[in-house]
Amino acid sequence: MHEITKNHLISKWDRLFLRWVSETEMMSRTFRSVPFQLTTSLFPNTPLVNIGEIRPEDIANELSLPTLATHFSPTSPSHFADSTYSQNMKSHGVQIIERALPVGTSLTVVGELSRPMDNTLPENVLEVIKPQNPKLPFVLTRETYGVFVHRQTTVARVLWWVFLGSVSVCGFCILRRLFPFVYPRFKTWNERRRLQNYLMERKRHDQRLESVDMDTDLCLVCFERQRNVVILECGHKYTCAECTDELLDCPLCKGPVSKGIRVES
């Protein structure tokens, strides 16, 4: 693989910080590739896979080729240079960078394997091509397989945590905006539900009182222990000591309960 990049080196005047800022503008880029084969360090003369011609847009990652040579041509003084300088821009020159992939470079290739259509290749050599599925990547990197997988795992983990953080922040903002509208309705619904439960419990208790013989000596609350407490406010003796401690009103007249006298018969 061989690449020639032609860049225009300029400087622009920054009116905010009052200084010249260097910039690089790409003028042209030429990329050429020829088929090559990959081998292992143990068997350098035995090809494993064949890679055909590659285009830069086929590679999912940015393949940084080693720089072979750099040539710089400074801009000669001219009327055009003076006009650009008057427009707050200085032209320094043109830089030509030549990059290539030398023979023997360590590469890691991730792609789709297929049988070669070229009969000149050995039968045991497979060909790596760009996957037909656009969701599958075609990677060609100078990193080792372990380093490449570790870097991709780290990037995926960082993106996952960024996604969770973004979802959490968005959810918090949405809940904060909806809280003034939702909380009063929830509070009203909760109070209504508690009131309905209280009324149903009160109704069931009244029904139990109506079905119980008032002449019995059992407590009207638990119906298990004997009546042994007289409520001072109303004078009724229909509860036991344990239930009286938990009562707020008399089960018969619904009067308040604050004190009671235990009577043993």
Automatic annotation (TrEMBL):
Query: Known catalysed reaction(s)?
Result: S-ubiquitinyl-[E2 ubiquitin-conjugating enzyme]-L-cysteine + [acceptor protein]-L-lysine = [E2 ubiquitin-conjugating enzyme]-L-cysteine + N(6)-ubiquitinyl-[acceptor protein]-L-lysine
GO cellular component, alphabetical, reads:
membrane
Instruction: Keyword check for Transmembrane helix, yes or no.
Output: yes
Q: Which Pfam families match?
A: GIDE, zf-C3HC4_3
Mind telling me which SMART domains this protein's record contains?
Answer: RING
Would you kindly state one Gene Ontology biological process term found in this protein's UniProt entry?
A: protein ubiquitination
Question: Which InterPro entries does the record cross-reference, listed alphabetically?
Answer: MUL1-like (IPR022170), SP1/SPL1 (IPR044231), Znf_RING (IPR001841), Znf_RING/FYVE/PHD (IPR013083)
Q: Which PANTHER family match?
A: E3 UBIQUITIN-PROTEIN LIGASE SP1-RELATED, PTHR47568
The protein here is known as RING-type E3 ubiquitin transferase
Q: Which organism is it from?
A: Basidiobolus meristosporus CBS 931.73
The taxonomy runs: Eukaryota, Fungi, Fungi incertae sedis, Zoopagomycota, Entomophthoromycotina
